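Components:
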Amino acid sequence: MENKRLTIALFSGSLDKLTAAGIILSGAAADDMDVEVFVLLQGARAFMKGIAENNDKLELAENPKLKAEFMESLEKLNVKPWLEFFREAKELTNVKIYICGLAGKVWGGEKLDDFVDLADDIVGIGECITSMEESDIHLFI
Amino acid sequence: MNQDELKNLEVHKKVDARGTACPGPLLAAKKALGEINSGEVMEILSSDEGTRRDVPKWAQKKGHEYLGTVEESGYFTIFMKKK
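Structure:
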């Protein structure tokens, strides 16, 4: 039986939504789903080298004043940093992470090397639409 | 299976995921499953309430056999058999 397919359009570059995306990705990995993540606008900034691993450069989308409390709680609960969810999911199942070409340019990222090593390629929106059409589930985060 | 039968099962893999929150126990179970053979039993220790339903549902969905859950003090143990 073919694996189910999940497509995520990841617009957000905020710590809370990136963490949520990572947790969903983990569930998909446990289910052996094939996943394609298309990283759009704000998300592309979060995946840039020098930013992805630095929580000081990322904020919360909701209740921004609670960032310190949010981060402390995650640490206390042994929840990994958001990027580690993506890394672990890639180790467990077929996960591809594509950076939107325009989004990369907005933040000064022209080349794949400008992004963390988890990024597989830089693509256009056509591939994202095709992936959504062909997947069993698609999410916009 | 009743609690005594579960406690007396021959276990081939023990996953201690206590102290981790969802999705930690699920991912730990998924990884450990690759280390046992078909028909072997794995136990997953967790103190995360979400995991109580999550792991059994996942196991059944993937075709494995969920054998039951044993309540312990401050945590619980989920038993499953690999398909």
